[in-house]
Design brief:
The complex is a heterodimer of chains A (68) and B (257). Chain A has one helix at 20-26, and strands at residues 2-7, 10-15, 34-38, 41-42, 58-66. With 68 residues, chain A is mainly beta. Chain A has one domain (2-63): Ubiquitin-like (UB roll). Chain A has a 5-stranded mixed sheet, with no helix packed on it. Chain B has a single domain (8-44, 52-233), classed as TIM Barrel (Alpha-Beta Barrel). Chain B contains 9 helices and 10 strands. In chain B, the strands form 3 sheets. In chain B, strands 5-4-3-10-9 form a 5-stranded parallel sheet. Chain B has a 3-stranded parallel sheet with strand order 6-7-8. In chain B, strands 1-2 form a two-stranded antiparallel ribbon. In chain B, α1 links the parallel β3 and β4. The chains are: A mainly beta (68), B alpha/beta (257).
Chain lengths: 68, 257
């Protein structure tokens, strides 16, 4: 059984025991310059390994872009 | 030297990274300007496409980052954006900007004050973008903002110091640095802001959209320097005519033929 989650609005499947750190690896997120929120809550990078993904989680990934 | 929070700056020109035609042009313009602090925004990333990667080269070049909360329409959204920015850019400085009105991009004073209070409590170094309102500037200063950033004119409008008299009041009263942000369209606008006594200016559109952004960055750097020098030199206020040469009284007793 896998989990159905949303990543930046797109449906995504991950395994049951997936944590944020594993998801970041799967998505090849860079080591810096991006941040991640689960259901509207910012999860610090230091907690990625401990934060287990749940079914129907909404995950948003943000990065630095040009702006004034 | 300009000090904001615990950081010293040699350059009083801060630059926004939006609207440049390419990352390389932006980097060249930043280098030419001598700036030490640049703003960045935050956006949901396209996980597949990272061709627009700016973050790494800017960090590598050693600029102090000033992430903004652009896109936030409420205090709550701005606080969320600040937390994300802090996490993404490993930086607790934030340019707080909340403009719910997409047409004029006027900053919301109520939401800005609420967000500033909360972010200061959370340990952020807060630089709020605000209207040139002297009362609001005092309130933001009192709640612990590290600087205030009143606008000269609407964002991207290139109209110059439309708010001149109110900027004068803010500068006169402020005990934190005043950074004039938004609306500076030409180097002479930036120079005028510095002559007025601003501690620094933040420029984006005027440099990024110039035909030659690198050269315009250089022009702004020169103007900011000149304006600051003039301020320090002491500017005599405008008045009536006053001779700059000795009056020609040696002619008085002569009969000219």
């Amino acid at each position: 059984m896998s989990l159905e989650i949303s990543v930046n609005g797109q449906q995504h499947q991950v395994g049951r025991e997936t944590n944020i750190s594993m998801l970041a690896d799967q998505l090849k997120l860079p080591a810096s310059g991006c941040a991640l929120a689960v259901n509207g809550q910012v999860i610090p990078r230091s907690q990625w390994t401990d934060h287990r993904i749940k079914d129907a989680d909404c995950i948003d990934i943000f990065g630095a872009v040009a702006g004034g | 030297m300009l000090q904001i929070a615990d950081r010293e700056f040699h350059s009083r020109l801060f630059i926004g990274t939006g609207k440049f035609s390419s990352a390389q042009v932006m980097l060249n313009a930043l280098a030419r300007s001598g700036t030490e602090m640049v703003t960045l925004a935050l956006s949901r990333v396209d996980i597949q496409d990272r061709s627009d990667e700016l973050y790494e080269p800017i960090v590598k070049a050693g600029y102090k980052l000033l992430p903004n909360t652009s896109g936030a329409r409420t205090a709550e959204e701005a606080i969320f954006a600040a937390q994300l920015a802090s996490e993404a850019m490993d930086c607790n400085w934030i340019k707080l900007e909340i403009h719910p009105d997409a047409r004029h991009l006027m900053p919301d004073p109520v939401e800005t004050l609420i967000a500033a209070e909360r972010l200061v409590q959370e340990g952020f170094v807060v630089l709020p973008y605000m209207h040139a309102d002297p009362v609001l500037a005092k309130r933001l200063e009192e709640c612990g903002c590290a600087a205030v950033m009143p606008l000269g004119a609407p964002i991207g409008s290139n109209q110059g110091l439309q708010t001149l008299e109110f900027l004068r009041m803010i500068i006169d009263q402020s005990t934190v640095p005043v950074v004039i942000d938004a609306g500076l369209g030409t180097p002479s606008h930036a120079m005028q802001a510095m002559e007025l006594g601003a501690d620094a200016v933040l420029v984006n559109t005027a440099i990024a959209t110039a035909k030659d952004p690198v050269r315009m960055a250089s022009a702004f750097a020169g103007a900011v320097f000149a304006g600051r020098e003039a301020r320090l030199a002491g500017i005599k206020s405008a008045g009536e005519a006053e001779a700059t040469s000795p009056l020609t009284d040696f002619l008085e007793d002569m009969t000219l033929v």
